[in-house]
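Batch manifest line 457
LIGAND: arginine
JOB: complex structure
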Amino acid sequence: MAKLWSGLASGAIDDAAEDFNRSIRVDSRMYREDILGSVAHAKMLAAKNIISAEDAEAIVEGLNGILADIDSGALKIDMEAEDIHTFVEQTLTERAGEPGKRLHTARSRNDQVALDARMYLKTRAETTGKLLKSLMGTLCERAEESKAMVMPGYTHLQRAQPVTMGHHLMAYAMMLSRDLGRLSDAVRRMDVSPIGSCALAGTTYDTDRFFEAELLGFGSVCENSLDGVSDRDFCVELASDLSLIMTHLSRMSEELILWSSWEFKFVELSAAYSTGSSIMPQKKNPDMAELTRGKTGRVYGDLMALLTVLKGLPLAYNKDMQEDKELIFDAFDTVDACLTVCAPMVGTMKLIPENMRRAAASGFINATDLADWLVGRGMPFRTAYKLTGELVAECSKKGVTLEELTLDEYRAKSELFDESLYDAINIDNCLLRRTSYGGPTPKSVERQIEYIKELIK
Ligand code: ARG
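JOB STATUS: finished
ARTIFACT:
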């Protein structure tokens, strides 16, 4: 396919350089946005009498035909073309003749690519938002089922205090709810049309950028043409939001990997989302969770690469910016692929409450409650904390739990102790009494589920 440009750079380009310069393999996926952007541009040119109504009609008809043919597979995108903008414009001219040559009046590929990317990425962000909601919905379902399954909560990966599986799962739903909010914030900020900035300095034609933006469903237009073609903040912002989604998915994956190990066995992943080993017949490996954890690095890499591509670029357009799409597309593809397997992986895993309870029974996760009981009898917390620590050490030496110490053993430490202490350190009671807002009781978890359900409906 011929190049769009000629003039000073009209000598033949070296084959390797031509291929190096090409972006069609990456940007061909924006064909719809490129065509819809061109349809709006032709309509604006006609509305402002820059081209005739007949020419605009021929252009729009030609472009719609190209869109339909690419969609149906009747027209293959030529991978020898320089980029998607070149391919669409040249195909249009082949099909519609002279009017096609008028389409590129009062625009440049610089504002065109900025427009296409914003349109395409707005749609991608919406899709990712839907996938996030689906995982949040799954977490709500599993939390509903496990809101009374007591398990140890951890700090430093050491058993700390009782929570429930439902409470734990809802913590992830909360993180994802912020991710959802960040994506929609980013979309709101990028809902600004750059088209009409032209190469960098606007145009001498009497165009109407507002009309064109409105046709394309943008909320507003960018205020400065140099910024319009140079700004890739939206790519960085999206990649940063996507990175944080991966952080959350990776932490959740790490827990699923731990929890499905024999050491924990709080959950068993479904066969549909695990793999076996080619040598060890007993293995059931959490590959999907591990891959999600592993792919996190890749999305962080996309973010870092985007930031690095942009730093030090003088205004306005520079070819470096062509690198943006491969990075941000990879980030979206990776996140969407992870969300697509994570939701059903969480949805189908088997929960094993006996093992959660067994883990909750040892590790002295009711020690704080014992100290709090003493505080209720008038002892200062710091004193109660110390005394409880001594009791824990004693239990540890004897190989028993706090529940198994006799009342005499307790009273040897403090006269304050009576029979009711056993009620206070019963694990279920320890959980049910943590009634502070946001806490782990089944009732509180229900409220959290309602909160998320309201957000995703
Ligand atoms: N393929 C280019 C990109 O993705 C389109 C813009 C080209 N503009 C230019 N002046 N060479 O950035």
